[in-house]
Amino acid sequence: MKLDNVRLLVVRFEEMFQFYREALGLTLTWGDASGPYASFDLPDGGTIGLFRRELMASTVGTAKLPREGEGQDRFVLILRIEDVDALAVALGQRGVALLGAPRDMPDWGLRIAHLRDPDGNLLELIQDLPSDAASSTLHEDETISLEGSGI
């Protein structure tokens, strides 16, 4: 089994299209801003698709259910990039607000920043921390054997 792509079911298609093409600078591979579907290649492989949410709801029989509900995020789209700080500056220049300043997460071995796309989906930008900046417990965890774990 192989993951083919991530498809976001969107309400504000045109805004989402512009966000992924213009703000994040992804390469459009199919579709246009009028929808109902568009796909974008990620620079190092992988694809993000956009599809009008109401069409998928109709297809799977959930069109009569509420579209939104308040709660914690149910997923986060993780994008590995070379320089979190540089992209944070570029996004700010394009009018995209981060949820907070980029920060180091030594226990994760990552520098991260979070933002939301126009439909409110959570995105996390990550880059590896230098090994001397990562938590020593992270290095210890990497040596744990997976023997007997079923992996």
From TrEMBL:
PANTHER family documented for this protein: GLYOXALASE FAMILY PROTEIN, VOC DOMAIN-CONTAINING PROTEIN
Natural source organism: Chondromyces crocatus
UniProt signal peptide: none
Pfam families: Glyoxalase
Alphabetized InterPro entries for the sequence: Glyas_Bleomycin-R_OHBP_Dase, Glyas_Fos-R_dOase_dom, GlyoxalaseI/FosfomycinResist, VOC_core
Domain of life: Bacteria
VOC domain location: 2-128
Name the record gives this protein: VOC domain-containing protein
